[in-house]
Amino acid sequence: RFHRVHGANVRLNASRTRATRVESFANGLCFSQEPLAPGQIFLVEIEEKELGWCGHLRVGLTAHDPQSLEVVPEYSLPDLVNMGDTWVFAITRSHNRVAADGEEAPARARGPHWEPFLLIEQVRIPRDTLVGRSRPGRYSHILDDLYKMNVLPATARRSRIGVLYAPQPDGTADMHIVINGEDMGPSARHLPTARPLYAVVDVFASTKSVRVIPVEYGFPSLQTLCRLVIQKHIVHRLAIDGLDLPPPLKSFCKHE
To answer: For the NHR domain, which residue ranges apply (predicted)?
Structure first.
């Protein structure tokens, strides 16, 4: 969930899993409720966009406890970064891949044999959860195969963006940004692991609303297993609306 401390223009829903910037283009800073564990990804999906602004979502990590901030900065870049011990990555429509020295960024196209797990250092994450999906709709069953091939632009609605840190042998860590199942590479190095690191999500400019996506690393939860059974026994996901289930459960069952 998102932390109770956030920017002045942010409104959280009751469960603190959705953050919406209600006015202007700034003061949209959010944090994870708890510090991240090594290799734990904080993943959000872009729910709403707002035309007329220049710039997109920004994500990263900070060693500042949000509760200790006297005032939440207006911007993650440069305000929060200038406070030190903060690393933020600006998401763009393209060219997000951070290439190592002497390395060329690989093509983004992915075929049907794309590996089911994303490997970052010693971290193994189910890639299917990391990739944006179409919402249930009249033609969503046609679009799903396209989304599985990772053709969503990074800044598009339903795109999923996450941040994590991977410990290194020298006792520091590298920050990795993951966009729709693809690791963008170490976008910051030599992060201190002695201090807790919180995720930073700046709902900035054309990005208006984001939703936290839970990620299961090992065995699926009972909730996920029940959703799979429900999805297996319906003709199409739109049929979930006709089931005698509470609205929050219907919403959960519609999502991949």
So the answer is: 1-215
